[in-house]
Amino acid sequence: MRTCCGCHQTKAAAELQRITLQPCGELRLDGRHKAAGRGVYLCPNAQCLQSALRHKALQRAFGVELPHSVLEEFSRRFLERLRETHVSR
Ligand SMILES: [Zn+2]
Strands (DSSP E) along the chain, which ranges? Predict the structure, then answer.
């Protein structure tokens, strides 16, 4: 079981989006839950993303400062992923 860093509910890892921090400092959506390194989990919905961003949950979880541009880019891809997931179901 994993905890969403937006709403702090505990869910099965498969129900959550896994996010990893790449060595270059970019955030990566790890769709297959296979990327190395520390993972942070988020429910696949925009509310949990917004809540995590508001509380700087990703910065805290990874222990680094994330530039606004990285967070913006990540949000965009996260929301894109949500749309794709809806289409494929
Ligand atoms: Zn959540």
Answer: 2-3, 10-11, 17-21, 27-29, 39-42
Q: What is the pLDDT of residue 80?
A: 94
Task: Please list all protein residues whose beta carbon sits less than 5 angstroms from ligand 1, which is an ion.
Answer: 4, 6-7, 43, 48
The domains of the chain are located at 2-88
Average pLDDT, the chain: 92
> According to CATH, what is the number of the domain 2-88?
3.30.1230.10
pLDDT in tens, 19-44: 999 999 999 999 888 888 889 999 99
How remote is the CA of residue 9 from the centroid of ligand 1, in Å? 6
- 3-class secondary-structure state, position 36: coil
